[in-house]
Amino acid sequence: VRCQQYPPLRALQASAVLRRASDEHKKEPLTSSSQQHFDSPPADHQPEPQEPQGPHPSYTGQGGQESEDYESEEQLQHRILTAALEFVPQHGWTAEAIAEGAKTLGLSVAAAGMFQRDGSELILHFVSECNTKLSKLLEKEQKLVQLGEAEKKPIDEFLRDAVEARLRMLIPYIEKWPQALSVLLLPRNIPSSLSLLTSMIDDIWHYAGDQSTDFNWYTRRAVLTGIYNTTELVMMQDSSPGFEDTWRFLENRVADAMAMSNTASQVQSTGEAVVQGLMGAAVTVSN
Amino acid sequence: CCCRALLSRPHGALRPRRALAHGPEMHFGFQTVTEEERREKIYQVFENVAKKYDVMNDSMTLGIHRLWKDILMHKMNPCPGTLLLDVAGGTGDIAFRFINYVRAVRQRQLQRKLKHQQNLSWQEIFESYQKDKFNSLGDSQVVVCDINREMLKVGKQKAQHLGYSEGLSWVLGNAEELPFDDDKFDVYTIAFGIRNVTRIDLALQEAYRVLKPGGRFLCLEFSRVSNPLLSRLYDLYSFQVIPVLGEVIAGDWKSYQYLVESIRQFPPQEELKAMIEDAGFFKVDYENLNFGIVAIHSGFKL
User: Pathway membership of this protein (chain A) (predicted)?
Assistant: First the structure.
């Protein structure tokens, strides 16, 4: 945490907001509803068991002045972005939404100046939060299966459910999501958005039980990425109630993928059988 | 050539260490004076140049200062409802740009709102017009603070002439001791002014004090050019051309000699960044414009 490296003078006089933020956090939980499940703290901080939300350091110190657990700037930025998500349906993925989010935290609207004007950071933050939520969900399901309380799903159903769960997280922001997609495709953002996408697909396959070490690893991920992206695009234009069309599309694509892999292995075994037959014929003929 | 003689002076010897805040010796351009003398001299400089300030700015920088100020405003990207404090804002350039920017953003906001109001009754639309019509700035305000009465006078005249009346106020005040309460402003700017402040650390502390939590500090100032070739050309232009322009246009050689000397005495980008961090600001960063001729420093009160 950067703050801790400063000499004492700075720690005492500075950070009116950062220190106060942890105080506020102790007094009352954040009221925004849908963001309660986000808990992706940075690696250097221990989560508190009694409070389910908020990337705050474990501020259990009694004296505010002497505690070294100041919130870092990154954590504050995370909090602002999380608060800003609430205003996205109204303002879009823009600096205005971030400014409104900062206002709800008691900060000046000028705090939005910390971020890019086009809202890229807000979108990337949202995507990474969704991915984390998905991971936690899949982990929970895996635990249930391990404990024997649930049955292991067949692969196609597992993939279908995972992709559906992930896409459902977009529903509150679906109107402005096309804008977000276009921002994610800007050359500046492609490295980050691509790495978030690939790590999410990787996660899904991991929990699906994929342990391949050959070229299958690549094909599986490429196939699932294709399924995810196309389903996402279909969802953008879907106006059916409850997005039924999208889920049906997803089901069909997953079934296609399964059939394709079956066909591939069938072709391979047929090929092998044909080759063996030819070899036998050749041997017979030569004799 | 006098230019070379001036340049060969070791800057370090004349520039006082800011840690020794009580040393009476300070720089006024390349001269050494006491703190009090410096304040007086600077006051006189700006008293003399006030009337021709804008004309001189245009001729010295070939009009580029307008672009610099526009870039500052673009970087600030204020939304309606922002409270701006423009210190050493004298003739109001930043303040007027702020008002224009906020007005434009507000227009777009209102247009967007109208587009969404497709299904309202005429009565509701009429009411929304009433509410928003007289709020063209969206409650944004700018306070221009300057220590020099003459500069403020020129600024007020300009505002009247250009038709700026709403959301603008003029306050006489010292950047080292601002006449405002704590935690009041969203953004604090000081454009080409911090160079003339005698105790920069005090000014930065005051900036920190009057800003709201989350507020932004922006400083636009002449800075160090690192490219050696450009630096030589720039020095040549500064010391040979600018004082002459000052004499010809404003009838005041000495003030403009002070101006270019003070630019050389001002700390470079990294040093100013460290000073801003010392005052308590976070996420301090700077952006060089024109290879370092001008730099915008930005920090947040977090």
Answer: Cofactor biosynthesis; ubiquinone biosynthesis
Under 8 Å between Cβ of B60 and B245 = yes
Q: Check CB contact under 8 Å for A73 and B283.
A: yes
Chain B residue with Cα closest to A14:
B280
Instruction: Measure B231 CA to nearest chain A CA, in Å.
Output: 31
At B50-82, the pLDDT tens digits run: 888 888 888 888 899 999 999 999 999 999 899
Are both A77 and A130 inside the same structural domain?
A: no
Specify if A132 maps to a domain: yes
A200 pLDDT more than 90 = yes
Assess whether pLDDT exceeds 50 at residue A154.
Answer: yes
At B60, list the tokens: 């010295």
Query: With an 8 Å Cβ cutoff, are B216 and A99 in contact?
Result: no
What residues in A contact B301, CB-CB < 8 Å?
A: 16-17
**Average of per-residue pLDDT across A237-258:** 92
The residue behind tokens 């950047």 is B175
Task: Write the CA distances from A22 to A30, A107, B182, B301, integer angstroms.
Answer: 12, 14, 21, 16
User: Which segments of B21-92 does DSSP mark as H helices, in order?
Assistant: 35-49, 53-61, 64-76
Pairwise CB contact (< 8 Å): A73 & B301: no
Q: In this predicted structure, what is the pLDDT of residue A131? A: 96
* CB contacts, 8 Å: A111 with chain B: 214-216, 300, 302
Q: Are residues A83 and A152 in the same domain?
A: no
Domain boundaries, chain B: 42-301
CA-based nearest residue in chain B for residue A80:
B214
Domain extent at residue A253: 120-276
pLDDT of the residue at A4: 44
Option in A10, A76, A95 nearest B77 (CB)? A95
What was the pLDDT predicted at B72? 95
- Residues B87-100, mean pLDDT to the nearest whole number: 92
Which of A117, A150, A175 is the C-terminal boundary of a domain? Answer: A117
Domain boundary among A117, A150, A177: A117
Contact B280 A15 (CB under 8 A): yes
* Number of alpha helices (DSSP H) and beta strands (DSSP E) in chain B: 13, 9
Q: Do residue B302 and residue A73 have CB atoms under 8 angstroms apart? A: yes
Residue B136 has a pLDDT of 79
**Average pLDDT of the residues in B77-92:** 92
- Give the single-character DSSP code of B206: H
Same domain, A248 and A173: yes
DSSP state of B85: E
Q: Tell me the nearest-neighbour CA distance from A191 into chain B, angstroms.
A: 24
Would you call B186 and A15 a contact, using CB atoms and an 8 Å cutoff?
Answer: no
Cα B121 to Cα A90, B117, B125, distances in angstroms: 21, 9, 6
Nearest C-alpha in A relative to B275? A10
Of B82, B277, B278, the CB nearest to A110: B82
**How many independent structural domains does chain A possess?**
2
- CATH superfamily membership of B42-301: Vaccinia Virus protein VP39 (3.40.50.150)
> Cα–Cα distance between A20 and A6 in angstroms, integer?
18
Which residue among B78, B213, B216 sits closest to A106, beta carbon to beta carbon? B213
C-alpha B44/C-alpha B183 separation (Å) is 32
| pLDDT the model gives residue A48 | 38
